[in-house]
Amino acid sequence: MNVQTEGTKLIIEKTFSVSQERLFQAFSNSDQLEAWWGPKGWKTVNKRFEFEEGGFWHYCMTCEDKNQGDFYGMESWGLAKFKEIQAPERFLYEDMFSDEAGNVNPDMPGMDIEVAFVPVEGGTKLVTTTFFDSVESLEKLSEMGMVEGFSSQMDRLEEYLK
After folding, report:
1. 34, 76, 137, 145: which could form a disulfide with 132 (CB 3.0–4.6 Å)?
2. Could you tell me the CA-to-CA distances from 116 to 10, 19, 23, 60, 71 in Å, in that order?
3. pLDDT digits (tens, 9 = 90+) for 97-147
4. Alpha carbon separation from 117 to 62, 99, 126 (Å, rounded)
């Protein structure tokens, strides 16, 4: 996995040995997304999933791993709005921290995330570009373990695709 920052952008790349269509499906199908989304030891449940432009994705990740100490039993809610979808090449969504009712947490930064699926020899390169409103927002989420969590999530996706 390749991780880099450019100003207010966080770019993460990882290549998977599956077709562009198969990798896109893992992100665009609610049941498939629930099967691997979130860091290891966490379970995701989609409360609402409308994979269409203007559609919403409201989800909850719950830590089910007792070995994760204080995180065990913790819930993390998110609300996303799909802005653009060009299947199977890419999609763009706004991602925000929320509560169970879908109310956005104003104390946490929101972000726009572009997910691109680039055919390469032997598979597909996933390129996620996260756009933050400021360097401080990027740093805040990085300090919270965003990159480590995403890395763990990519491992789960790779296992799921096998």
Report:
1. 137
2. 14, 13, 10, 24, 31
3. 999 999 999 999 899 999 999 999 999 999 999 999 999 999 988 888 888
4. 28, 30, 5
What is the spatial distance between Cα 87 and Cα 102, in angstroms, rounded to a whole number?
A: 27
d(CA 141, CA 131): 12
* 94 close to 70: Cβ distance less than 8 angstroms: no
Place of tokens 């990882």: 14
Q: 158: Cβ–Cβ under 8 A, 6 or more apart, which residues?
A: 14, 16
DSSP label at 1? Answer: -
Query: Among residues 159, 150, 120, which one has the least CA distance to residue 32?
Result: 159
Listed residue (36, 28, 31) closest to 46, CA to CA: 31
> Which CA distances in Å does 150 have to 4, 35, 130?
13, 15, 12
Provide the residue type at 152 as one letter: S
Distance CA 124, CA 158 (A): 12
Q: Which residues sit opposite 10 in a β-bridge? A: 5, 130
Q: Which amino acid is at 98?
A: S
Residues 6+ apart with CB under 8 A from 47: 58, 59, 60, 102
Which of the 8 DSSP states describes residue 11?
E
d(CA 153, CA 119): 21
